[in-house]
Amino acid sequence: MHMFPSAIASSLSSLASTCLPHRGFSFESFNTCSRRSFSSLSSPPLDVESSSQSDPAAKDKMGSLPTVPPFKVFIAGTSYAGMSTALNLLDLSKGESPRLAHSPYEHHADFKNIPLDITIADERDGFFHLIGSPLAFADSAYAAKSWVKFQDIPSLQRPNVRFVQGSVSKVDPATKTATVLDHETKQPQDFSYDFFIGATGLRRAFPVVPQSLTRKQFLLEAEEQIHAVRNAPDGVIVVGGGAVGIEMAAELKLVEPSTKVTLVHSRNQLLSSEGLSDLCKDKALELTKEAGVEVLLNTRVKETRKIEPTANGRARYEVEFTNGDKLIASEVVMAISHQTPSTDFVPAAAKDEEGYVLIHPNLVFSSDIPNAEDHIAVGDIAKWPGIKRCGTAMHHGHVAAINIHQLMLVKLTNKEHKPKFYELGFVEPMIGLAVGKKAVASSSEGTTWGEDVMHSYFRDDLGFTICWNHMKLGKADN
Length: 478
What we know:
Elements: E1 7-10, H1 27-30, E2 34-38, E3 71-76, H2 80-93, E4 116-122, E5 126-128, H3 133-136, H4 140-146, E6 147-149, E7 161-172, E8 177-182, E9 188-192, E10 195-198, E11 202-205, H5 215-230, E12 236-239, H6 243-255, E13 261-264, H7 278-290, E14 294-296, E15 301-307, E16 316-321, E17 326-329, E18 331-334, E19 340-341, E20 375-377, H8 390-412, E21 420-424, E22 431-435, E23 438-443, E24 446-450, H9 451-458, H10 464-470
Parallel strand pairs: 3-4, 3-10, 4-7, 10-20, 12-13, 12-18, 13-14
Antiparallel strand pairs: 1-11, 2-21, 5-6, 7-8, 8-9, 11-19, 15-16, 16-17, 22-23, 23-24
Protein name: FAD/NAD(P)-binding domain-containing protein
Pfam families: Pyr_redox_2
GO molecular function, one term: flavin adenine dinucleotide binding
């Protein structure tokens, strides 16, 4: 039985594959509302003195601009939000429009090219497509596709981008220093920065997300889980009727149609914790059953006991429910886990009681800490309403890159530049959920479902290709 207590940071914008693009889709408009504004009351005060850039816009005696030293940018976490921030910012630094933009970006006439020195720190050695986690733990070929080492991502192979595998243990806003515990040496290493971007996401337990830190370890971890659920003569029980549990149960049944799969949920509706329409929740149930998964609602697990194995030594478990019913299974998969922001390194003054980073609408830290205006939080760790989704995380990265670029211009011009910040707006509850061969999608515009919805939102790889292409991860720098 796999019920591991350990967890790993994931910039998980909901594993529930939530809200990927479809035909006519716009990440800008669909994933989260945003607006452009001049420096407003909701934006933080700017302090150019805190930057290593000291009035580089001052012209020399010949009237030409001096060489601008690179801004040091430190990004903690490189899933959807962190990756999007890095790549959009790199575009802007070369005088281009950010890759997620839907309209041309207006650059400063004197600073179309701004040198950057980017350090990326992540516990993993690569980009893991978290949306695909349910399928990665059911299909070996997909598992191999879902994890790409950073050195194999063409868009990141640049001389001014450095990757450090390790855990960020501390951030000191006063000295603008980030400390990373190296994955191999276990020794701390300090990195100074001009701008800090926190994108470390949420921590969740296995098998909601993999616990491995390297691709090699992950493939072994996935293979062990795949073997366990395939060799299940007494069937598999998936506990938890949220988006993750639904997708896990449906993907397992799709890959192993002969295996009995039972989804157990304690409430009277699937997706009960989400502010979605009853129609969406009803269709999720309908599609789950249609996929061949048995569903038990209003059923809460009381105890799981390991019982006598089969004749060939296969483990067996007895699951007892609070209503007195019992089920036997070869595997019990816990698809429920308490999610916590991976923000231990963030000063307590910058977080709420749950650990989420307090932000202005432009993603800048809103708390009263030193140099708050040079610290940005994106993705799941940011305290902002709405279902945690990969689309929102990528959009956060786009907005963060623009706003960091605007802050750089303020520093470069000694405050003469008036920043034009993008700000987040209200995010309505919405979801795109893969259920076997079909999907259900729901937003304020209504609920749709079917095989065409599956293709529009996920294609045939739970959105891997869509996300890869959207962020242009395969595009090498010129």
